[in-house]
Amino acid sequence: MKVKIGEAVLELVEGDITQQDTEAIVNAANEQLIPGGGVDGAIHRAGGPSIAEEARKYGRCPTGSAVITGAGNLKAKYVIHAVGPRYRDGKHGEPELLASAYRSALNICLEKGIDSVAFPSLSTGAYGYPLPEAARIALKTIISFLKEHGRPRLVRMVLFGKEAYQAYEEALKELAAREGLS
Ligand code: ADP
């Protein structure tokens, strides 16, 4: 599924983030920027050791923020490491922190002139964020960013498996209807 927001496109696909040919891909990183499991492990395995070496220079990356490195052997040119929150009960600032992780990654795209970026579903694996809520927050944040800035021209959400894809599709249908997007 795809919607247009001004000149920009927001797209949902089911797939593997490591295979994307967008200029940048986003990693669901941890604050220590140390390679972990899930999507993080897959990106470091596919991209090679240069990504972790470069990330190490930043030291720590607080929850809700993001840093950028090269992408080693991946098709993309850059990896943006964004740190989403661990979900506790939704009352510990998780929605704001999740939105902030998406916004921080998108701001890096603006600063670097990156015009296409692929995101995984931040925080919905090991960090336990319920998918329907995380989907709504992710998509609302991306839509409002694109409305304000018109860039990057392509934002692709790469959902791993049917369940994640369907949760995002449902959330996007609802938001698109509400905001008059097609
Ligand atoms: P977090 O710690 O932020 O929860 P995870 O990597 O555990 O990060 O999970 C985030 C999401 O990424 C999950 O929905 C998971 O299914 C998904 N995921 C795992 N591997 C990949 C992959 N290769 N491409 C895209 N998404 C993936």
UniProtKB/TrEMBL annotation:
<feature type="domain" description="Macro">
    <location>
        <begin position="1"/>
        <end position="176"/>
    </location>
</feature>
<protein>
    <submittedName>
        <fullName>Macro domain-containing protein</fullName>
    </submittedName>
</protein>
<dbReference type="InterPro" id="IPR002589">
    <property type="entry name" value="Macro_dom"/>
</dbReference>
<dbReference type="InterPro" id="IPR043472">
    <property type="entry name" value="Macro_dom-like"/>
</dbReference>
<dbReference type="Pfam" id="PF01661">
    <property type="entry name" value="Macro"/>
</dbReference>
